[in-house]
Amino acid sequence: MRTLIVDDERLARNELKRLLEPYTKIEIVGEAANADEALVLIDELQPELLFLDIQMPGKNGFELLSSIEGKSPEVIFTTAYDEYAIKAFEYNALDYLLKPIDVERLKDAIHRIEESQIHPEVSVTANDRAEKILGENDQVFVKDGEKCWFVKLGKIRLFESMGNYVRLHFDDQKPLVLKSLNNLEERLDSNTYFRANRKHIINLHWIEKIEPWFSGGLLVTLQGGDKIEISRRQAIRFKELMSL
């Protein structure tokens, strides 16, 4: 994947190049120290991917993206500041890496690039995104305290109500978001996400085992070991949904 690194700090560019060395599919075709240099190189080199800093002399990273004519490359933001993460999401970024860049987070970002090539998605505006039903290939921005993630919904195996918050279960992470479970249920694709009971929405693709449970309910075990009870009322819907 033809890649351009845009960062005003030479040491940061060199460090990123070093971190990217193990990824043979990432071909670094150039680097730029500011937006003006980057625009020239984008026009000349036609990169497919930008690793883009946000705060730079002159135009910032967002202004650079707004100045690109024609189809924009995919973008992974690299920055020392987490306050721009929500705005980065509006630009449909693949990921948002905080400096100093963590090796595992970079690995996740590269994996997301590979998946985006296998499952290309139609770009949508922020307003469109606010209305559309979210499926397993959509990404969501999650911030909990000082940590933030771009998470592909298909990786989230369980949504758990915690009062006015919802806990998301993905990988070994369990961040809280200020949302109600009912609000999330309205946004999620019902072919993939099922309301098991008052407190839980499960990802059907993560079910490993189903057992009969008390009072006509069901007990499902998700990959990773979570055990969730499907209420008797929801068990009827579940059986209808999962039957031929």
UniProtKB/TrEMBL annotation:
Domain of life assignment: Bacteria
Record flagged with keyword Ubl conjugation: no
Pfam families in UniProt: LytTR, Response_reg
Limits of the Response regulatory domain: 2-114
Membrane-spanning segments: none
Record-listed 4-aspartylphosphate modification sites: D53
PROSITE patterns noted in UniProt: HTH_LYTTR (PS50930), RESPONSE_REGULATORY (PS50110)
UniProtKB keywords: Phosphoprotein
Domain HTH LytTR-type: from-to ranges: 142-244
Keyword Transcription: no
GO MF entries: DNA binding; phosphorelay response regulator activity
Protein name (database record): Transcriptional regulatory protein BtsR
Organism ancestry: Bacteria, Pseudomonadati, Bacteroidota, Cytophagia, Cytophagales
